Amino acid sequence: MDPGLQQALTGVAPSRDTAMHVPAGSVASHLGTTSRGYFYFTTTALALCLVFAVATIMMLVVQKTDSIPNPPGKFPLKGGNCSEDISCVMERSPFRKSWAYLQVSKHINKSKLSWNKDGVVRGVIYQDGNLVIQFPGWYVIICQLQFLVKCPEHSVDLKLELLINQDVKKQTLVTVCESGAQTKNIYQNLSQFLLEYLQVNTTISVKVDKFQYVDTNTFPLENVLSIFLYSSS
Protein backbone atom coordinates (compact mmCIF):
# COMPACT_ATOMS: atom_id res chain seq x y z
CA MET A 1 0.00 0.00 0.00
CA ASP A 2 1.15 3.47 -0.72
CA PRO A 3 2.82 4.91 2.38
CA GLY A 4 0.88 8.17 2.13
CA LEU A 5 -2.51 6.42 1.91
CA GLN A 6 -1.68 4.15 4.83
CA GLN A 7 -0.77 7.16 6.93
CA ALA A 8 -4.04 8.91 6.03
CA LEU A 9 -6.15 5.86 6.98
CA THR A 10 -4.31 5.47 10.22
CA GLY A 11 -5.13 9.04 11.18
CA VAL A 12 -8.87 8.64 10.47
CA ALA A 13 -9.57 5.22 12.12
CA PRO A 14 -9.53 5.20 15.89
CA SER A 15 -6.96 3.07 17.54
CA ARG A 16 -7.89 -0.12 19.43
CA ASP A 17 -6.96 1.52 22.68
CA THR A 18 -9.13 4.53 21.94
CA ALA A 19 -12.20 2.38 20.91
CA MET A 20 -12.03 0.13 23.98
CA HIS A 21 -11.41 2.91 26.48
CA VAL A 22 -14.71 3.79 28.30
CA PRO A 23 -14.66 5.48 31.66
CA ALA A 24 -15.38 2.89 34.41
CA GLY A 25 -17.46 5.36 36.39
CA SER A 26 -20.03 5.88 33.62
CA VAL A 27 -20.68 2.10 33.28
CA ALA A 28 -21.12 1.62 37.01
CA SER A 29 -23.44 4.62 37.17
CA HIS A 30 -25.61 3.26 34.37
CA LEU A 31 -25.86 -0.19 35.98
CA GLY A 32 -26.65 1.31 39.38
CA THR A 33 -29.46 3.41 37.97
CA THR A 34 -30.98 0.36 36.25
CA SER A 35 -30.75 -1.76 39.45
CA ARG A 36 -32.48 0.89 41.54
CA GLY A 37 -35.26 1.16 38.99
CA TYR A 38 -35.91 -2.59 39.11
CA PHE A 39 -35.78 -2.52 42.95
CA TYR A 40 -38.36 0.26 43.21
CA PHE A 41 -40.65 -1.44 40.70
CA THR A 42 -40.42 -4.80 42.48
CA THR A 43 -41.05 -3.26 45.91
CA THR A 44 -44.09 -1.35 44.67
CA ALA A 45 -45.52 -4.47 43.03
CA LEU A 46 -45.06 -6.55 46.18
CA ALA A 47 -46.70 -3.85 48.31
CA LEU A 48 -49.73 -3.72 46.02
CA CYS A 49 -50.02 -7.51 46.08
CA LEU A 50 -49.88 -7.49 49.89
CA VAL A 51 -52.61 -4.83 50.16
CA PHE A 52 -54.82 -6.77 47.76
CA ALA A 53 -54.28 -10.02 49.68
CA VAL A 54 -55.16 -8.40 53.04
CA ALA A 55 -58.29 -6.81 51.57
CA THR A 56 -59.38 -10.15 50.11
CA ILE A 57 -58.90 -11.93 53.44
CA MET A 58 -60.89 -9.28 55.29
CA MET A 59 -63.77 -9.58 52.81
CA LEU A 60 -63.85 -13.36 53.25
CA VAL A 61 -63.84 -13.06 57.04
CA VAL A 62 -66.71 -10.55 57.01
CA GLN A 63 -68.75 -12.72 54.64
CA LYS A 64 -68.17 -15.78 56.81
CA THR A 65 -69.14 -13.91 59.97
CA ASP A 66 -72.34 -12.61 58.39
CA SER A 67 -73.29 -16.07 57.21
CA ILE A 68 -73.04 -17.70 60.68
CA PRO A 69 -76.59 -18.42 61.90
CA ASN A 70 -77.72 -17.91 65.49
CA PRO A 71 -76.64 -20.84 67.67
CA PRO A 72 -79.42 -23.15 68.85
CA GLY A 73 -81.26 -21.74 71.81
CA LYS A 74 -80.20 -18.15 71.12
CA PHE A 75 -83.23 -16.03 70.34
CA PRO A 76 -83.34 -12.27 69.80
CA LEU A 77 -85.19 -10.33 72.44
CA LYS A 78 -88.69 -9.31 71.56
CA GLY A 79 -89.46 -5.66 71.20
CA GLY A 80 -91.99 -4.15 73.52
CA ASN A 81 -92.08 -3.56 77.22
CA CYS A 82 -89.26 -4.49 79.58
CA SER A 83 -91.29 -7.15 81.41
CA GLU A 84 -91.70 -9.32 78.32
CA ASP A 85 -87.99 -9.03 77.56
CA ILE A 86 -86.95 -10.01 81.10
CA SER A 87 -89.32 -12.96 81.06
CA CYS A 88 -87.91 -14.05 77.71
CA VAL A 89 -84.37 -13.88 79.06
CA MET A 90 -85.25 -15.86 82.18
CA GLU A 91 -87.03 -18.57 80.19
CA ARG A 92 -83.95 -19.16 78.06
CA SER A 93 -81.26 -18.52 80.67
CA PRO A 94 -78.91 -21.24 81.97
CA PHE A 95 -80.10 -20.45 85.54
CA ARG A 96 -83.37 -22.32 85.21
CA LYS A 97 -82.95 -24.55 88.27
CA SER A 98 -84.41 -21.96 90.63
CA TRP A 99 -85.99 -18.67 89.63
CA ALA A 100 -89.15 -16.60 89.87
CA TYR A 101 -90.78 -13.71 88.03
CA LEU A 102 -93.81 -12.10 89.69
CA GLN A 103 -95.93 -9.01 89.04
CA VAL A 104 -97.37 -7.00 91.91
CA SER A 105 -100.96 -7.64 92.91
CA LYS A 106 -103.58 -5.16 91.75
CA HIS A 107 -105.03 -4.88 95.25
CA ILE A 108 -102.41 -3.38 97.55
CA ASN A 109 -103.61 -2.71 101.10
CA LYS A 110 -100.44 -2.91 103.21
CA SER A 111 -96.76 -2.02 103.14
CA LYS A 112 -95.64 -5.62 102.55
CA LEU A 113 -96.47 -6.20 98.90
CA SER A 114 -98.29 -9.23 97.58
CA TRP A 115 -97.73 -10.67 94.12
CA ASN A 116 -99.88 -12.31 91.47
CA LYS A 117 -99.94 -16.06 91.90
CA ASP A 118 -100.04 -16.61 88.15
CA GLY A 119 -96.41 -15.52 87.85
CA VAL A 120 -93.62 -17.87 86.87
CA VAL A 121 -92.08 -19.74 89.80
CA ARG A 122 -89.60 -22.60 89.43
CA GLY A 123 -87.63 -24.22 92.25
CA VAL A 124 -89.01 -21.56 94.63
CA ILE A 125 -92.17 -21.41 96.75
CA TYR A 126 -94.40 -18.33 96.87
CA GLN A 127 -96.38 -17.94 100.10
CA ASP A 128 -98.07 -14.90 101.69
CA GLY A 129 -95.96 -12.32 99.85
CA ASN A 130 -92.72 -14.27 100.45
CA LEU A 131 -90.50 -16.18 98.05
CA VAL A 132 -89.13 -19.18 99.93
CA ILE A 133 -85.78 -20.56 98.77
CA GLN A 134 -85.52 -24.31 98.11
CA PHE A 135 -81.93 -24.58 96.85
CA PRO A 136 -78.94 -22.93 98.61
CA GLY A 137 -76.62 -20.67 96.63
CA TRP A 138 -75.94 -17.15 95.38
CA TYR A 139 -79.13 -15.46 94.21
CA VAL A 140 -79.67 -12.30 92.16
CA ILE A 141 -82.73 -10.39 93.38
CA ILE A 142 -84.29 -7.58 91.32
CA CYS A 143 -87.29 -5.46 92.19
CA GLN A 144 -88.81 -2.61 90.17
CA LEU A 145 -91.85 -0.53 91.05
CA GLN A 146 -93.66 2.36 89.41
CA PHE A 147 -95.27 5.12 91.48
CA LEU A 148 -97.84 7.76 90.57
CA VAL A 149 -98.18 10.62 93.04
CA LYS A 150 -100.71 13.41 92.78
CA CYS A 151 -98.84 15.95 94.83
CA PRO A 152 -100.53 17.03 98.08
CA GLU A 153 -99.62 20.21 99.96
CA HIS A 154 -96.46 18.61 101.33
CA SER A 155 -93.56 16.52 100.05
CA VAL A 156 -93.83 12.74 99.84
CA ASP A 157 -91.14 10.19 100.68
CA LEU A 158 -91.24 6.99 98.61
CA LYS A 159 -89.25 4.08 99.99
CA LEU A 160 -88.60 0.59 98.62
CA GLU A 161 -87.08 -2.10 100.87
CA LEU A 162 -85.80 -5.60 100.07
CA LEU A 163 -86.07 -7.94 103.04
CA ILE A 164 -84.30 -11.23 103.70
CA ASN A 165 -85.91 -13.16 106.57
CA GLN A 166 -87.73 -9.95 107.60
CA ASP A 167 -84.45 -8.02 107.81
CA VAL A 168 -83.91 -5.03 105.49
CA LYS A 169 -80.94 -5.74 103.17
CA LYS A 170 -81.28 -2.97 100.57
CA GLN A 171 -83.46 0.13 100.40
CA THR A 172 -84.11 3.09 98.11
CA LEU A 173 -85.60 6.41 99.19
CA VAL A 174 -86.68 9.38 97.06
CA THR A 175 -88.60 12.54 97.91
CA VAL A 176 -91.11 13.97 95.42
CA CYS A 177 -93.53 16.93 95.35
CA GLU A 178 -91.10 19.17 97.18
CA SER A 179 -92.64 22.24 95.57
CA GLY A 180 -96.07 21.38 96.97
CA ALA A 181 -97.89 21.76 93.63
CA GLN A 182 -101.19 20.03 94.35
CA THR A 183 -102.23 19.43 90.76
CA LYS A 184 -98.89 18.04 89.60
CA ASN A 185 -98.66 14.32 88.84
CA ILE A 186 -95.29 12.70 89.46
CA TYR A 187 -94.30 9.39 87.85
CA GLN A 188 -91.43 7.83 89.75
CA ASN A 189 -89.55 4.57 89.24
CA LEU A 190 -87.79 2.83 92.13
CA SER A 191 -85.65 -0.26 91.68
CA GLN A 192 -83.26 -2.31 93.74
CA PHE A 193 -80.67 -5.01 93.01
CA LEU A 194 -79.12 -7.51 95.43
CA LEU A 195 -76.68 -10.41 95.18
CA GLU A 196 -76.91 -12.59 98.30
CA TYR A 197 -76.07 -16.11 99.44
CA LEU A 198 -79.30 -17.74 100.64
CA GLN A 199 -79.92 -20.93 102.56
CA VAL A 200 -82.90 -23.26 102.23
CA ASN A 201 -86.15 -21.78 103.64
CA THR A 202 -84.82 -18.22 103.46
CA THR A 203 -87.64 -15.77 102.67
CA ILE A 204 -87.56 -12.78 100.32
CA SER A 205 -90.13 -10.00 100.51
CA VAL A 206 -90.66 -6.35 99.57
CA LYS A 207 -92.01 -3.48 101.66
CA VAL A 208 -93.05 -0.04 100.42
CA ASP A 209 -93.66 3.09 102.44
CA LYS A 210 -96.65 5.00 101.00
CA PHE A 211 -97.86 1.83 99.24
CA GLN A 212 -101.00 3.68 98.06
CA TYR A 213 -98.91 5.38 95.39
CA VAL A 214 -97.80 2.17 93.66
CA ASP A 215 -99.17 2.51 90.12
CA THR A 216 -100.90 -0.71 89.08
CA ASN A 217 -102.92 0.88 86.26
CA THR A 218 -100.65 2.92 84.00
CA PHE A 219 -97.71 0.46 84.00
CA PRO A 220 -99.09 -2.79 85.42
CA LEU A 221 -96.39 -4.91 83.77
CA GLU A 222 -93.50 -2.89 85.15
CA ASN A 223 -94.03 -3.70 88.85
CA VAL A 224 -92.04 -6.88 89.21
CA LEU A 225 -90.01 -9.00 91.61
CA SER A 226 -87.56 -11.42 90.04
CA ILE A 227 -84.91 -13.75 91.46
CA PHE A 228 -82.67 -16.44 90.02
CA LEU A 229 -80.00 -18.81 91.28
CA TYR A 230 -76.72 -17.45 89.98
CA SER A 231 -74.37 -20.04 91.47
CA SER A 232 -74.88 -23.03 93.78
CA SER A 233 -71.18 -23.14 94.78
How is the secondary structure organized here?
Elements: H1 3-12, H2 16-20, H3 24-67, H4 82-91, E1 99-103, E2 120-122, E3 124-127, E4 130-133, E5 137-150, E6 156-164, E7 167-176, E8 185-198, E9 203-209, E10 224-231
Antiparallel strand pairs: 1-2, 1-10, 3-4, 4-9, 5-8, 5-10, 6-7, 6-9
Describe the 3D structure.
- This protein has 233 residues and is α+β, with helices and mostly antiparallel strands.
- Helices cover 30% and strands 33% of the residues.
- It has two domains: 38-67; 86-231, Jelly Rolls (Sandwich), CATH 2.60.120.
- The protein contains four helices and ten strands.
- It is elongated.
- Mean pLDDT is 73; it is low at 12-22, 24-31 and 57-84.
- It is a single-pass type II membrane protein.
- Residues 98-225 form the THD domain.
